[in-house]
């Protein structure tokens, strides 16, 4: 695999490595205080990154960017990347999501098992540390228990232009706050009665520094810690601590966390001052999130699409989830190529879906064997070819890889061809079958079209032709007759009729739900109104016989059509059904 392209995060990492910033870090293999770490050996990992999903939904294409970036950096620089379930919120998380995240990360080819370390973590395992750190902050005068109501707190927070107002409880003694925080933990108070806040600056121009909440009372059962806790840390408090306890060197996140960085640094500095964390501290670095045309990449919208049954579940091949991508037949290497091309920047941009599809095509063109499939079958009858006689034609498995050899396809008197390969009255420039014209049946013979049969409505139901016996592909006579048209076919007697799903874009406009030029000022658009009604077409195709043995998830290029994968859910042994991942060329809008 080629080295990923340069980007500003790589520059930061390289500068840190050159300066030896992390060379003296100790690695205990488990969370610990600065003293615990100092007793441990030096960290063999040059850098540590992490991918920290909240297990409250399925991963989407945007997460793939973060996964490939974090695991890619670790791999490129002799580091480790941790998979961490950010499960500090007791109410929203489920095992189903944990399992699907593990599958998706593995599918992308990333591993948290590196150099004998298994770096799979759960943030909820740090609740003891977090509570201890919160108590330290109280004792050092950096946190206090606030007993204002939620409304009072909101009113006193101020605005972007107006400073906030100190809470009357801000001057509470450390001893009183400590007593209250202990009693919060003991379950003495109902939800919302008190809250623990960092004591920073209610007049800060950055609202995130106006005494942010760090611990709240929540009488809820947690999927990992059960009923042990009735106080839970806020995300902005928990996340920097998780990073520090895991020895993360570069904590990479999306731009919406930029305003949180001052608090991230403030918190870790206070804890390091107190001797609770080793230095150097993790550094938060923000990059712009992936936005793609024709899809939505927000958990909330994806949940709505699934819950309201606009799609058939989280793994619907039309959804931009990673389970959906896998089922559709997209390639993990294609994701890697696409993300390399998109790059890592701090500029928000909307990436054209065509770029994604082109990366997929490029990877699949190289990796996928060719097969023959007739998607819109019309019968071709070769009147001068003996009935019940068949012969083998040699077919190349991969034109770019002759070493992959050939296979055979049976040829006979009756073949399926694409309906569009015959025109009774040819339009200008049409070079395939029409009465009087000759064309090549690829890998087989040259045939001359003689006419067609029609039903009572005038619909063509069969095409007739005669073949030129000396013109078989691969024989000396193959070039004796020159023809311009070339078509694919499968033997009627041998074809495997299969269900094939032709997927198209889920939305019919580039920015679903966004206002468009000319919209009346009062018009509010809903992304659901932009769903493409023709995003899925079911057909019965006639496939070459060998495709009957395709295994779930096996993918092929169907010649002239695109890349198709055997569906991993609905395929049965000896009876695969196929999903179109992507067409050969961009046909959108044509
Ligand atoms: P969403 O915003 O879609 O609800 P999330 O950010 O809540 O997703 P998390 O599970 O918290 O999802 O995210 C895990 C990691 O993936 C975070 O580091 C987050 O920044 C990153 N991530 C999420 N969406 C994108 C995106 N579109 N592009 C790049 N990284 C993303
Ligand atoms: Mg989140
Ligand atoms: Mg988010």
Automatic annotation (TrEMBL):
L-glutamine binds at residues 86, 235. Its EC number is 6.1.1.18. It comes from the Bacteria. The keyword ATP-binding applies. It is found in: Cytoplasm. GO terms for molecular function: ligase activity. Residues 487-567 form the tRNA synthetases class I (E and Q) anti-codon binding domain. Its main location: cytoplasm. A motif ('KMSKS' region) lies at residues 296-300. Keywords: Aminoacyl-tRNA synthetase, ATP-binding, Cytoplasm, Ligase, Nucleotide-binding, Protein biosynthesis. Residues 369-467 form the Glutamyl/glutaminyl-tRNA synthetase class Ib anti-codon binding domain. It catalyses: tRNA(Gln) + L-glutamine + ATP = L-glutaminyl-tRNA(Gln) + AMP + diphosphate. ATP binds at residues 54-56, 254, 289-290, 297-299. Residues 46-362 form the Glutamyl/glutaminyl-tRNA synthetase class Ib catalytic domain. Belongs to the class-I aminoacyl-tRNA synthetase family. Monomer. This is Glutamine--tRNA ligase. It comes from Dechloromonas hankyongensis. The gene is glnS.
